[in-house]
């Protein structure tokens, strides 16, 4: 859980950096390519191909392609179809997808995870809901594509990791994850990117370096590692903890307007869902003993 909390704080800062210094100023496909390319450079020196079989390497590359590559394509496309508040609102369904996908991949059904995940969605909706305009269904489906990709990547990594030896150094194989994402990001920029939209200031390049080396590089590695050390309910809830964390950072540092009452209420619901999930896990452990 500590890893997920730490990455949540890290990504909360990253959202504001993107909104202030990159959005609308730097080509989004180039930003994605830079983030993934720099993240790959962090882990390629540690890559030891002999530690995984060919099928396992392809599986890890596939997870990277889906969780980062395809997800980003959906995500950036959604901003052409929806307003920013609508995009943010529609991302709150990710916990539901995680709960369902985790049960499906591990061959079980845990209704209680749907309860806690739904509470996390409710908390995020309290924070982010600002009303909807008509004609948003196409955009809604595009955002759900991004949500599904992000959820599938996390749950898929949990499933893949469960079949690997506990002694396997995860940092020595995670480079395959970013290579898979690059296999999507490179052609996406070639086909959809705009070479005229490259960074024009040192600050923009600095933000991209931070996002690539730290937020994407260390961030996704630690997040996926943390995903293997918690249950599906906690993972689902933590996906929506980013919303109040990101708003709080944006309010404190960049003084953006935020409804503190809704922020506090929604955050309390998300924390409450996490506490409820932990209580249920302890109760189930005691009953099993």
UniProtKB/TrEMBL annotation:
Q: Does the keyword DNA-binding apply?
A: no
Source organism, top-level taxon: Bacteria
Which residues belong to any copy of the EamA domain? 3-127
- The keyword Transmembrane is assigned to this record: yes
- InterPro entries, from UniProt? EamA_dom (IPR000620), EmrE-like (IPR037185)
Residue intervals passing through the bilayer: 29-46, 58-75, 81-100, 112-130, 136-155, 176-197, 203-223, 235-254, 260-281
Annotated keywords: Membrane, Transmembrane, Transmembrane helix
Q: Sorted alphabetically, which Pfam families does this protein's record hold? A: EamA
Q: What name does the UniProt record give this protein? A: DMT family transporter
């Amino acid at each position: 859980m500590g890893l997920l909390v730490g990455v949540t704080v890290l990504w909360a800062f990253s959202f504001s950096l993107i909104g202030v210094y990159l959005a609308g100023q730097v080509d989004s496909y180039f930003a994605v390519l830079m983030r993934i390319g720099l993240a790959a450079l962090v882990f390629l020196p540690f890559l030891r191909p002999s530690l995984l079989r060919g099928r396992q390497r392809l599986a890890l590359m596939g997870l990277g392609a889906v969780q980062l590559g395809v997800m980003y394509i959906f995500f950036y496309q959604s901003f052409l179809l929806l307003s920013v508040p609508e995009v943010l609102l529609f991302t709150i369904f990710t916990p539901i997808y995680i709960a369902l996908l985790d049960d499906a991949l591990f061959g079980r059904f845990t209704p209680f995870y749907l309860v806690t995940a739904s509470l996390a969605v409710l908390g995020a909706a309290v924070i982010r809901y600002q009303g909807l305009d008509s004609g948003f269904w196409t955009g809604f489906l595009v955002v759900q594509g991004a949500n599904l990709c992000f959820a599938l990547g996390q749950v898929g990594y949990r499933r893949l990791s469960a079949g690997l030896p506990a002694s396997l150094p995860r940092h020595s194989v995670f480079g395959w994850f970013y290579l898979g994402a690059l296999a999507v990001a490179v052609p996406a920029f070639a086909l959809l990117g705009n070479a005229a939209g490259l960074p024009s200031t040192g600050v923009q390049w600095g933000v991209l370096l931070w996002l690539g080396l730290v937020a994407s590089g260390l961030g996704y590695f630690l997040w996926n590692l943390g995903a293997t050390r918690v249950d599906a309910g906690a993972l689902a809830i933590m996906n929506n903890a980013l919303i109040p964390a990101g708003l709080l950072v944006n309010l404190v540092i960049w003084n953006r307007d935020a409804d503190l009452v809704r922020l506090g209420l929604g955050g309390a619901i998300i924390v409450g869902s996490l506490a409820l999930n932990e209580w249920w896990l302890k109760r189930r452990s005691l009953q099993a003993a």
